[in-house]
Amino acid sequence: IGGVNLSRHGSISILQVHFSPNNRTYLIDIHILGDAAFSTAGASGQTLKGILESDSIPKVFFDVRNDSDALFSHFGIKLASVHDIQLVELATRSFSRRCVNGLTKCIERDISLTGSEREAWKETKEKGLNLFAPERGGSYDVFNARPLAKDLLLYCIQDVHFMPRLWQHYNSKMSVRWAAKVQQATRERVALSQTATFNGKGQHMALGPFAKAASPTRCHWKCPPQATPHVSSHRTS
How far apart are alpha carbons 23 and 26 in whole angstroms? Predict the structure, then answer.
């Protein structure tokens, strides 16, 4: 999901949906459509809100917390049947599970990209960041500019493009025991994001929920503050 200060205090601009069966990515303009994006029924009679809240339709996110916060706060959507790749990666590690990784680190470390794929990925990422990252002179308001800048459009698509490969890589290694732990932790993330006291910014966002199950060896590094994700994914993911 892309937005301006993506949270209950900001707004949702773009919802990216990658549909694995046909390998297509769809960008839904929440900034323009508003509630209609979630309440309008398609040919099958289903609405996007119904899909997101369905217990029988799996949705895959990367760090669902701020996405869930924004969806619940602005549109009353209670996510269900969520799989969080960030937690799946954490569960399948052979080293410390104290700190979570961001999407960029997971792509760099765990996906085998060809030379041309890696260069294209880096170029698209850098062009997008230059547009919206304040530290680079950008502004998150570009998510609400129409037409959407081509470099930002490509950035939004790319952030969900590699999600199926990450899911396959991590999920194939996860044991039944850890799968249960991940599902419970994911449900807790969604529930926490809907509470009145949820805060989606700060160093606490970099800490994983499995510290007690991990090796007793302490981290020898300081967990960095995790920036609010401007684009993550929902897939029907």
Answer: 10
Alpha carbon 28 to its chain centroid, in Å, reads 15
Dist. CA 103–CA 230, nearest whole Å: 11
Contact 234, 67 (CB under 8 A): yes
d(CA 88, CA 209): 12
82 phi and psi angles, rounded to 5 deg: -100, 140
Q: What is the DSSP-derived secondary structure letter of residue 182?
A: H
End-to-end CA distance of the chain: 12
- pLDDT tens, position by position, for the chain (237 residues)? 999 999 999 999 999 999 989 999 999 999 999 999 999 999 999 999 999 999 999 999 999 999 999 999 999 999 999 999 999 999 999 999 999 999 999 999 999 999 999 999 999 999 999 999 999 999 999 999 999 999 999 999 998 999 999 999 999 999 999 999 999 999 999 999 999 999 999 999 999 999 764 444 444 334 444 333 333 443 333
Q: Residue count of the chain, please give it.
A: 237
Residue 151 near residue 127, CB atoms below 8 Å: yes
Helix (H) or strand (E) holding 11: strand 11-19
* pTM for the predicted model, two decimal places: 0.89
CA angle centred on 168, ends 167 and 169, rounded to 5°: 90
Q: How many CB atoms lie within 10 A of CB 123?
A: 13
b/e sequence 180-197, b meaning 16+ C-beta within 10 Å: ebbbebbeebbeebbeee
